[in-house]
Specification:
The protein is of the alpha+beta class and 320 residues long. It folds into three domains: 4-63, Orthogonal Bundle (Arc Repressor Mutant, subunit A); 71-223, no CATH class; 235-316, Alpha-Beta Plaits. The chain contains eleven helices and 13 strands. The chain has helices at residues 4-18, 23-30, 34-46, 76-91, 97-111, 114-126, 145-156, 225-234, 250-256, 280-288, 300-316; strands at residues 20-21, 51-54, 60-63, 127-129, 158-166, 169-183, 186-193, 198-203, 207-216, 240-246, 263-267, 270-277, 294-298. The strands form three sheets. Strands 4, 5, 6, 7, 8 and 9 form a six-stranded mixed sheet that branches. Strands 11-12-10-13 form a four-stranded antiparallel sheet, with helices on one face. Strands 1-3-2 form a three-stranded antiparallel sheet. Strand 5 and strand 6 form a beta hairpin. Helix 1 packs across helix 3, helix 2 (23-30) crosses helix 3 (34-46) and helix 10 (280-288) crosses helix 11. The termini are far apart. 21% of the residues are buried. This is WYL domain-containing protein. Keywords: Transcription, Transcription regulation.
Length: 320
C-alpha cells in the first residue's frame, strides 16, 4: 500500500513523464478518488511546483511549460554506487527486476547533470560483474578514478595511456580498453596493450595513472571481457596439467564445474577437459563430485589421488 507522501511524489513523476494527464486517468493510476488527487495537487503547489489545471469534463493537469526540477546532486562515488547497484540487479537475471531497473535508470537519467549521466552510462555499457565470485575476498583500487576513466574511454572507444605497477616494476603503455570486469574480489580492465601487442588484463588497484592518448579503436566483434578473463584464469599455467575425458555433453560439463575449471572441448567420445591445477588432490575431489563418468588421460598421479578419495568414501560408507 502506498504512503500518502509516496503518492504525492508519484503524481509529480506522472506529470514529468507524461506531460499532461486527465484527473480520472491519474487517479486511476494511483488508486485514489478525485478529491484525494486534488489534495495531492494542492500539496505539490504548496511546495512550489507550478501545475496548470484545466477544468471541465476533458480537463487535466500538467506542469507549467518550461518547469523542470533542479538536478539531483550526486557525488561521483554516489553515482558509481548507484550505477553498479543497478547493474548488479540486472545481472541477477530476475524477470521481475528488469522493468524496475530500467525505470530507475530512466529516472536517474532525467535528473542527473549531463557529465554525471555520461559517467553512469559508461559504467552501464562497459562493466561486467561476476556475481558468483563477488563474495570472495580480494582488493580494491585506492579510489574510483581508474574505473571511471577507463569506463568512459571504453564507451567512447578512445585510447588511454596507463602507468601500471606489477610487483616492484612500473611501466607505461597505451591501451585500448575493451571492457571492465569485477571478478573474484578484484576489478580488471581488459583490452589491447600496444606495449605487448596483444590483449592483456590489468588489475585496477595496480593502475597508478590514466591519461588520454592519441587515437581510437574498434571493439572486436562479439568480444566479451568477462568470458576472456575467465578463460585467461582457466588457462593460466600451474604446477600440474591434466587432461580428462568427461562422459557427457558440453552443456552438462559446464554446469558441473566453475567457469575457470578449465577448457572444455567437445569430441566424438565426450568432452575433453584441459585443466591446470596447483593441487591434484583438489582436482580429484572436484572430479569425484561430478554426476557423470570420466577417464583420466594424464597425469598418472591424478589416478592415485582419485584412489585416495575413493578409499575415504568407502570407509565413510562403512564398506571397509
Amino acid at each position: 500500500m502506498y504512503h500518502p507522501t509516496t503518492r504525492v511524489l508519484a503524481v509529480l513523476e506522472l506529470l514529468q513523464t507524461h506531460g499532461r494527464l486527465s484527473g480520472a486517468e491519474m487517479a486511476g493510476r494511483l488508486g485514489v478518488d478525485g478529491r484525494t488527487l486534488r489534495r495531492y495537487i494542492v500539496m505539490l503547489e504548496q511546495i512550489g511546483i507550478p501545475i496548470t489545471t484545466e477544468r471541465g469534463r476533458h480537463g487535466g493537469y500538467a506542469l507549467m511549460p518550461g518547469f523542470k526540477l533542479p538536478p539531483m546532486m550526486f557525488t561521483d562515488d554516489e553515482a558509481l554506487a548507484l550505477s553498479l547497484g543497478l547493474l548488479a540487479a540486472r545481472s541477477l537475471g530476475l524477470a521481475e527486476a528488469a522493468p524496475a531497473v530500467a525505470s530507475a535508470q530512466a529516472k536517474l537519467g532525467r535528473i542527473m547533470p549531463d557529465g554525471l549521466r555520461q559517467r553512469v552510462d559508461a559504467i552501464d555499457a562497459t562493466v561486467r560483474l561476476d556475481l558468483r565470485s563477488a563474495t570472495q575476498p580480494g582488493g580494491a583500487a585506492q579510489d574510483n578514478t581508474a574505473l571511471t576513466a577507463l569506463s568512459l574511454a571504453a564507451k567512447s572507444r578512445r585510447r588511454v595511456h596507463l602507468r601500471y605497477r606489477a610487483g616492484d616494476t612500473d611501466s607505461e603503455r597505451d591501451v585500448d580498453t575493451y571492457g571492465l570486469v569485477y571478478y573474484s574480489g578484484y576489478w580488471y580492465a581488459v583490452g589491447h596493450c600496444h606495449l605487448r601487442g596483444g590483449i592483456r588484463t590489468f588489475r585496477l588497484d595496480r593502475v597508478l595513472e590514466v591519461a588520454p592518448a592519441e587515437g581510437g579503436f574498434q571493439l572486436p566483434p562479439g568480444f566479451d571481457a568477462l568470458a576472456h578473463l575467465r578463460q585467461s584464469v582457466a588457462t593460466l599455467p600451474r604446477r600440474f596439467a591434466a587432461r580428462i575425458l568427461l562422459k557427457t555433453d558440453l552443456a552438462a560439463a559446464r554446469r558441473a564445474f566453475i567457469d575457470t575449471f578449465g577448457l572444455f572441448e567437445q569430441t566424438e567420445d565426450g568432452v575433453l577437459l584441459h585443466n591446470q591445477s596447483d593441487e591434484l588432490g583438489w582436482l580429484a575431489r572436484q572430479l569425484a563430485a561430478a554426476p557423470f563418468e570420466f577417464t583420466v588421460l594424464e597425469p598418472d598421479s591424478l589416478r592415485a589421488e582419485l584412489r585416495t578419495v575413493a578409499e575415504r568414501l568407502v570407509r565413510a560408507a562403512g564398506l571397509r
